Amino acid sequence: MTAESANGAVSIVVAAHNEGDNVRRTVESIVGNTDTPEFEIVLVDDGSTDDSFAFLSRVPHAGDRRLRCYRFGESVGCIRARHQGSRLAQYDHIVFLDAHVSVPQGWLAALERTLLRWGPHIAITPDVSTLNEETWSANPSTGQVLTIDEDLGFVWQNLRYPTRLMATAGGCCVFMTKQLYRQCGGFDLGLRRWGCEFIDLIMKVYAIGGACYLEPSVLVGHLFRSGFPYPMDYRDVTYNKLRIGYIHLSDIAFRNLLERLTQQHGFTEAMVAFRADLHEIDHLRRARQAANRRDEDWFVRMFLPGLDPRWRSEPPTVNPIGFVTAG
Predict the structure, then answer these.
(1) pLDDT at 6
(2) In degrees, to the nearest 5, what angle opens at C-alpha 308 toward C-alphas 161 and 282?
(3) Which of 164, 270, 286, 302 can pair with 239 through a Cys bridge, CB separation 3.0 to 4.6 Å?
(4) Please, are residues 250 and 308 in contact by the beta-carbon 8 Å criterion?
């Protein structure tokens, strides 16, 4: 099946672990506000021990053929759960959506139009604001977007025009073709459970000649939480940053990242695990370097010049259309 033969059909992948009623409210937001002619929602239950998915057996969701659910017997982490959703997706366009979001009317059609405008080699992320839990709708836009800093951590910055180029996608809503997901290598299943998987994915998209674009006309409401409904170890996040940095960055940039990460939670334990996996990680790095269409300096020069003194005083001048179509 091709994107054209599917007539714009989209697989919406939602992975969740112990999200309670958030899953149902997210699904109802999707169903009520999606006007694309054909879509499916691929739900992945990451070994939940609550009744997050019980609503699927009740009216009006029981028997809705657009809803498909895969269950892991025990939690494998959101990275593997999302990847499983991509494997089960029937259509050639994929949206990775968090299990605690609201979407506006016409959201998917707008993202598809952006994809048609720029081409199949880009990932698209919308504007994101906080979620009003009572109305399950997005609060007004803050005029800021998520990006990454030199620690590979998420930070907010003011919207930048006219290019709409994004260093990364926060992960609550990312739209791309299945072909691009596979071509760039998809999620790194060597990453630990949760954290930084979309940083890695978007860096891969850029490395093979693609790009990540913002679609500011679509505003998604996201439930930002002070805690998690499941065990969370920041050592794993630090490990993921080490792994991503080593695979994607130049030696100079990685050394500077390493120095920054020494102050982060669980660094010592993460470094032990990183060294134990270094043979495999180095193999991945060499394979990526051989496959990439952009060198290891490109992303740093474009988005993280603070990691390499060669680029700190040299702001990039890039024609976004030129490099995107070259992909």
Answers:
(1) 41
(2) 105
(3) 270
(4) yes
What pLDDT is recorded for position 314? 58
User: 152 CB contacts (<8 Å, ≥6 apart)?
Assistant: 196, 199, 241, 244, 245, 257
CA-angle at 153, arms to 147 and 156, nearest 5°:
35
**Residue 28 exposed, middle or buried by CB count within 10 Å (0-12, 13-18, 19+):** middle
Predicted local confidence at residue 317, as pLDDT: 47
Note whether 215 and 141 are within 8 A (CB). no
Q: How many CB atoms lie within 10 A of CB 4?
A: 8
Nearest-angstrom CA–CA distance, 68 and 60: 14
Sites in the chain below the pLDDT cut of 50: 1-6, 162, 317-327
Return the pLDDT at 270: 94
Q: How does 276-303 read in b/e, with b if 16+ C-beta sit within 10 Å?
A: ebeeebeebbeebeeebebebebbbbbb
Residue 131: count other Cβ atoms within 10 Å of its Cβ: 24
Domain parsing of the chain, residue ranges = 234-325
Record the pTM. 0.90
Helix 267-276 and helix 234-248, axial crossing angle in degrees, nearest 10:
50
Neighbours of 7 (CB within 10 A): 10
What integer pLDDT is reported at residue 326 of this predicted model?
A: 29
What residues contact residue 127 under an 8 Å CB cut-off, 6+ apart?
Answer: 141, 145, 159, 214, 215, 216, 217, 218, 219, 220
Amino acid at 19: E
**In this structure, what DSSP letter does residue 136 have?**
T
Instruction: List, in sequence order, every residue forming a beta bridge with 220; answer none if it has no partner.
Output: 128
Q: What is the pLDDT of residues 147-165, one digit of tens each?
A: 999 999 988 888 765 458 8
